[in-house]
Amino acid sequence: MAEPIVLRHRALPELDRLEVYRKNGGYQAFEKAVRSQTPEAVIQLVKDSGLRGRGGAGFPTGVKWSFLTPGVFPRYVVANADESEPGTFKDREIMERNPFQFLEGVAICAYAAQANVAYVYCRGEFWDLTGELDRKIAELERAGLLGEHLFGTDYSLRIHTHLGAGAYICGEETALLESLEGKLGQPRLRPPFPAAEGLYGKPTVVNNVETLANLPPILERGADWYRSVGTKQSPGTKVFSLSGHVERPGNVELPLGTTFRELIFEHGGGIPGGKAIKAILPAGASAPILPAADDVLDSGMDYESLAALGSALGSASIIVLDETVNIAWAEAKITDFFEHESCGKCTPCREGTYWMKHILGRLMGGEARSEDIELLQSVGSGIRGKCLCALGDFAALAVTSGIERFGTDFEIHAVNGR
Amino acid sequence: MALAQKHRAEIHAILAKYPPEHKRSAVMALLYLAQREYGHLDRQAIAEVADLLELEPTEVGSLIGFYTLYHDRPGPSYRLQVCTDLPCALRGAEHFVQELRRSLGVAESELTTDGQFAIEEVKCLAACDRVPVFQLQEPGGIHYYENQTLETALAVVGELRGGAPRG
Fold it and tell me: Of chain B residues 93-122, which have a CB less than 8 A from chain A?
């Protein structure tokens, strides 16, 4: 396995202790940046590294930072630690086991953005983890690595945690900002994007935990080194959260472009009970399902390859389904999830997920006709492209891709019902 | 203003995280504080939080229905919230929750006879590699219990009851 960049705690015991983290080079990148590099130089370096957002969208991180409206202050940085995508559990491991690399990444991002305050928005379920982060932040302040006049310069930075309270939608960056402002966590109309008008209407960078944890090694070792890992268009490693029907579920950090086959059969130990693999959800609930044919298994896991397969890498939460799974059942579970998590702001998503849930319920209860499958597709197309955020699209694509790629799994229930 | 008097220092620390002109941001943390104090968020608790932040009670109250970890009615002391989302369901979580309910003699949306526990099903908890998993929500916090079996889960319940584990 390649050298870990983000899950370094797996190679270095007790990396969650500040003295151990510092002994292994921790906070040198942040200190060097604050002392001797301009914010523009840091942004350029991150652009050159090709780092792309690890929360799901895959947007180039340095480019996102460069959109901050010039000359407008204060600015804010927000770490998106609302990790709630079904099948995703990577940010939690990073914050629990390698918290200082994450917090140094927040600090580097804040310096590049010229922000003096950063928030870490944690999902409410991460209650104990958030308490631990608070203690780490206090420790950093005592060590002079956060606070006023850092390293004898004019730069000051405070990091605060903010606890959510159970709402998947708050992982969407504008809904997160609304929630952080004390309002209902519902997405905003864009533009303006957060880089122009974010938290409290000020220029704001929102980055995922894993994205931020990549920053200290990139600053330390340079853009060329980072580009030597992964693929040309998707540089670096990715933490793949592997779950479902595999012998060894868990997080695996691998270069982007590694094949599904290597992840599932080598690192994950294959399918339990000698069963055959049937399908893969490459991005949790939020990307079209893929039949586990050879061309898919031998495909690289990177942003471009997944798009070419008609799906998406998203946050790289790989859920494996074996031959015993009925895909209509799986998509009904996913639809339950989206119906529950729809924030209710956009009518197509609010009503559409409700109707898809009920039609799928009828189907699974053996009370549907084959016309209901067409009805599902029609409701799906009534949602797609008609909402403020991607939740509605994800919900629709789950069902329509399931029907397109595993139609008989749906028909079998309709036939039984009629 | 029981909260304001009793928890002055904690409220001050919460408000200090946000710019003074944006103290509305503190509403989520203050709702958790009120829920810890009162067990649930009734009209009086909402009014107190609204008062602290100079908001209308409806602006505070609307959040409670939106976010699943706030409760507006008196409930059990402990909510065992088992994830039965897709990745957990693939690894037996639905069976686990049925067994747990059967062992405790409760149906869905019922409380145990002592009124102390509810077994709820929740969406993904970001612990899909450690199934079955539940979080224990009590007024004072939320804690994870991973890689559970029926026996370990019942032991947790037994410990919280202060007696010997059942079964």
Answer: none
